[in-house]
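Running this now, will post back.
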Amino acid sequence: MALLQSPHWPFLIDVYFFLGGLAGGAFVIATVAALLDAERFRDVTRVGYYLALVALIPCPIILIVDLGVPTRFMNMMFRFNPTSPMSMGAWALLGFSACAFLAALMTLLEDAGKVGRLGRPKLLVGLVGAFFGFFLAAYPGVLLGATARPLWIEGHALGALFLAVGASTGAAAIALLLMLVGRRSAAGMGAVRTVLVLALIVQLLSVVAFVVSVQMSGSVAAARALATLTSGQFKLTFWLGAILVGCVLPLLIGVVARRSVGLTALASLLVLVGGFLVKFVIMAAGQV
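Update: finished.
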């Protein structure tokens, strides 16, 4: 696969990667909850599907704004190229958008009492959408690895890291919304907290794998870029914001204070901030 030109992506693309990952993570969690026990985890599924659609709505708008000309976005949609990360990402966004809309619509019809339970068709949409959501959450890491930026090329764990961030931020957003709407079961909140803790563990391990893979690559340019992340201009954002505040602290809260609603809300907020900072700082360091 040929490398893409070295990009200089604006802040809006950081927002797109964050929202797309969160939407994909929330959708996958909602579908898994429906598979495990549709009745017991009904609130998790409802909130997850609604959240996925709301988080997804700005994504195509951001892409169109970034491309500058709407027809460029349409050209990407009409030219399917399985060897192009950009083309695959655009088609994954289209497929996921359709599934997120249908899942949220069916959930809304159920909540409004317009129809009975749509368990089977909604689960089918959920399974298809979960595939696209999984891809959408992970593909930005693959896309970065296909560019000519040394930090991203040598950071072989970026796909896993972005996927873990999507899962952690999706779980954190679901937990926050469940607390805000006041319709939460102990089983549902417990399951979301468990997903959040597991996702944060994978997120930390993926960060370690990313740093180690760059260090062991032997690339001087990649090592120089990594230094800006770990000991240079981005070190406070990376260590204090993305790692300590956004990952380690909420992980400790999730393990030690699982039954506290207030601390769970705090941990969820920290995860959302940290999830954005992880993607932001890696994007920024890679473009220096």
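The radius of gyration is 19 Å. More later if anyone needs it.
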